[in-house]
Write the structure tokens for this entry.
Amino acid sequence: MEAILLASANPHKIEELWQILEPFGIELKSTHDFPGGKDVEENQPGLEGNALKKARYWNQFTGLPALADDTGLEVDALDGAPGVYSARYAGKDATYEQNVAKLLRDLDGIKKRTARFRTVIAFVDGENENLFEGICEGEIIHKPKGENGFGYDPVFRPAGYKKTFAELSPEVKNRISHRGRALFKFLEFLKG
Ligand code: IMP
């Protein structure tokens, strides 16, 4: 199969996608290999729509099969928020730290802290469009812990683990994470 374009400008995501896909001998290109491409606005009402929008744009722009992911953190006590708004929970252009701080403020005094990361991966090759979902259940702890990963990783402890995603090694996170699970479904699809 020809190369796959990873339709993301987020270096943390690219790193994770790369780590999982590279051992399978898939040639990967990044958006940086195609200067002139635009930042696709994530303005769809759901993760599926945003992932598809990004993958369609980059497939058309590069002519390569394109893979895009959109991820949301769904917190039960907040009725599923921040969800599709996870990147801008504390406002447009909010930093990871500001988003985490707002999340911890909103959960102040709340005992039920269950949450899940949900990733939708869209793969668009010009003829077909396919979606793959990955979910990782867990809970939001009270204070950030750990230095690895990105985003909400320091406050998300996956179910069955004593450490946050930011304390776990990248290998362990990739094996159990929302993004890893969605990607393993994608790899099964490629094999088929
Ligand atoms: P995006 O819209 O898919 O880029 O992701 C939305 C936001 O969710 C990001 O800005 C991060 O804050 C957060 N996020 C996405 N993936 C992860 C992850 O694997 N760990 C922690 N936070 C994540």
Summary: The chain has a mean pLDDT of 96. DSSP finds five helices and seven strands in the chain. The beta strands are 4-6, 28-30, 66-75, 82-83, 114-124, 129-140, 156-158. The CA atoms of residues 174 and 180 lie 5 Å apart.
